[in-house]
Amino acid sequence: MYKFILGKKIGMTTIFKDDTAIPVTLISAGPCVVTNVITEEKNKYNAVQLGYGEKKKVNKPVLGQVHNLGKFSILREFRLPENPSNNLKIGDIIDASIFEEGEKVNITGISKGKGFLGVVGRWGFRDAPRTHGQTTKYRHPGSIGATTPQRVIKGLKMAGREGNKRVTVKNLEIIYVDKENNLIAVKGSVPGRRGSILEIRSANLTNKGKLINVK
Hints:
By secondary structure, the chain is mainly β. The protein folds into two domains: 1-57 and 64-113 and 165-215, Translation factors (Elongation Factor Tu (Ef-tu), domain 3, Beta Barrel); 116-143 and 154-162, no CATH class. The protein is built from two helices and twelve strands; from the N terminus they run βββαβββββαββββ. The protein has helices spanning 40-43, 119-123; strands at residues 4-17, 20-29, 32-38, 47-54, 72-79, 93-94, 104-110, 115-117, 160-162, 166-178, 183-187, 197-202. The strands form three sheets. It has a six-stranded antiparallel barrel. The model is unreliable at 63-69 (pLDDT under 50).
């Protein structure tokens, strides 16, 4: 069985369980509304589109818009391995009650943007030695190529923009579920800043909608 929902990152805290301190991330999971059901017969793939959050202002309708999409601030598709129309219909509500304590989930979000970093901050390169005539290039990358070929090889670790990327953290355990307030506490950290939108899937469901075996 696979489960999925949209949520918002609240922040991190500590939960004490069996005299053990467990670092957790609090997530406001749902409620989400099924705004579209996509089937392989019509669209060549299976997915469910969820709406989350309310807009302050309703924008003008977009061509192809379905079922009051204008009132949601976030719309995301979750790809599935089978036809979802048998279990879900437009207008159905999904909330935190679908999860149980002890379940494993995969969480996808946009990581914090850290701007332009050098190779030490971005890749963890070691500083250059302070001896043997070294005076000003302690945090430089050093050699970036050989005599042959006479070019820089693709994929070389160099300075550049860090963060602000789509990241998935897998097999995170759900420590606590508050079904009344739609809150879940997940062991460990998740991508993104406080208030960022997260995609939460069962651990056996990939982002491309395939089922895998999870130990």
